[in-house]
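thought: fold this chain, then report.
action: predict
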Amino acid sequence: MKSIKTDKMNTSMESTISYRLAIASDLDAVVNIENNCFDTEKFNRRQLSYLMFKAKGCCFVAVDEDKIVGYISLLQHKRRNNLRIYSLAVDKSAQRKHIGQGFIDIAKAYAKENKLSSITLEVRLDNSAALSLYKRNGFLEEEILPNYFKYNIDAFRMKVSIE
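observation:
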């Protein structure tokens, strides 16, 4: 699988945030972020390890002054010519630093480099911060998925086309 070039992936000239492909030693930090960000819909260590290193896709981490502060898991569907954002999380201590935007930029660049036509994701209807980020980046609500998450929580399936 091709990987994206991440040497220019800073959100701004003044930012201390950098992005890179995840490596094995990042797993503990990713597990901690997952546990701190999600209550009911979180992956365990085994699931995260699979997503990071065995699934058909890749995982990027955001690093702020040598500390991993976020991750994005991307899955590639060749038959559908699609990239799926499977999970995106930013540690609460690092929010409001535009890290989520950096991850969206990486996903779009990855999709374009791998000649994928779209990016899809599922997001809780009540996650206003994530919905705002995705809508700012051209994602459209395709459908409502009833009871998609635990405890009968509905989700939007969202999609953006890649040009």
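thought: worth noting. The helical segments are 27-37, 45-53, 99-113, 128-136.
final: tokens above.
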